[in-house]
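Q: How would the C-alpha cells look for this protein?
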Amino acid sequence: MSTGETVAVKVLATDSKQGEKEFQTEVAMVMLLGRLHHRNLVNLVGYCAAKGQHMLVYVYMSKGSLASHLYSENHEPLSWNLRVYIALDVARGLEYLHDGAVPPVIHRDIKSSNILLDQSMRARVADFGLSREEMVDKHAANIRGTFGYLDPEYISTRTFTKKSDVYSFGVLLFELIAGRNPLQGLMEYVELAAMSTEEKDGWEEIADSRLDGKFDVQELNEVAALAYNCVNRVPKKRPSMRDIVQVLTRILKTRHIKKYQMSLSVATAGEVSVDLEQGETKIPITVHQRDESMDSATDTFEM
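A: Here is the predicted structure in C-alpha cell form.
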C-alpha cells in the first residue's frame, strides 16, 4: 500500500452466483466486525468490487495459518506453551463474536486453516464467508462448513447456534493437543482415548509426538477435559465461549504461579519481583515475548 503497510488480498470467484454471494456475505459481516474491533479477529482494511473484480484486503498475518504450523515440515513444531496461548486467543475472538458483537455473530467455520498468526504468534480468527448474525437465517437447506469440525447436531437439524462454534472449537483444541487432522479421523481417535481415560486423567496418551513429551501433564489433561466438554453430543451441556476463556485463563495463571514459585528457589536477589498492586510476576526471560497482559499472568511463550 502507499503507506508502506503490507496487506493480504483475497480475490473471490466472480464466475458464479456462489462467488458473488460469498463476497457480499463476507463484506457485510467483516464490515460489521470492523466497527467492533477485536485483536483476535483478522481485520478488514478495505474491499474492491469494480470491473468484475471482487477483492477483500486484510491485515497481513506474516506467520500464516495454524494448520501450516501443525502439519508442515517447513515449520518447527509449536511448543505446548504456545499452543495453549493460541487456544486462548481463538477463544477470546469467538467470545467477542458471541457476546461482544451486536448482534451476536456465529462464525460457522472454525478450523486450523482459518486461524492465522501474526509476527508475534498471536492468533486471530479469519474467514467470515459463512458467518451469520445469530438471529438471521438460522436454518439452511444445505450443510455449510468443514467436515471433521461440524457439530453433529447441526448436521442432523440444519440449525446452527453458538454451541455449534463451541463444538468446532473443541475439535480445534484436540487438534492442538494431538497434532492430528480432523479430516483424518481425529475425533474417532479421541473417542477411543476417552474410553481409557478417567475424567481428567490419561489424555497425555494422545499428545502430539512432535511435542517430544515436553508438556505439563496436568495442564494437558485439563485442556483435553475442556475440549471433551466442548464436543459433548448434547449442545446444552457444552460450555459457553465465555466459560472456555475463563478456564484457559485459569490454566495459564496456574502455569505462571508455578513458574514463579520455581524461580524463587533459584533466583538471586533482584532477579524476580512481584508488583503487589498489579498482581504481576516479573521474571527476566530470553525467549520471545508477546505484548499482551493477562491479569496476573505474564504473557510469554517458547517456540
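The radius of gyration is 20 Å.

The longest strand covers residues 44-50.

Upvote if useful.
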